[in-house]
# Entry
Amino acid sequence: MRHPSLSLLAAAALALGAATAIAQPTGYTGPSNAPKAAAPGGYSGPSSIPLTTVKQLLDTGRDDQPARLQGRLVSFEGDERYTFEDATGRMIVEIDAEDFPAGQTVSAEQRVELVGEFDKGLRKDEFEVERVILLP
# Structure
């Protein structure tokens, strides 16, 4: 004989798993090749992390180098990956949903500052974002 509360618990767990599997990020509203992301806020004061460009980072960046980039998120590529663009070029950036500003969305036209760490790999370079700041 099945216990009624176990069946209810199993159904709730199944529903939660299904909701998690199809949840889409909501922090970015521009073009997308996959779903989108949402998030809380954080520190908003000055930073000693140097402002750099995509070109500088790709040409001379070191692995695990902290940096700040200013430009636009022009496309969502899926799995927390976005294409970022500044006046010097484009690169893939990785942004967790909680790293977007709380309660705000980011469109492809919105200028942003990305604070994070450069990940220099053998086959690809990527910027791992720790915080997204909306610029005026």
User: Anything to note?
Assistant: The chain has two helices and six strands. The chain has a mean pLDDT of 80. Residues 4-22 form the longest helix (19 residues). The CA atoms of residues 46 and 64 lie 21 Å apart.
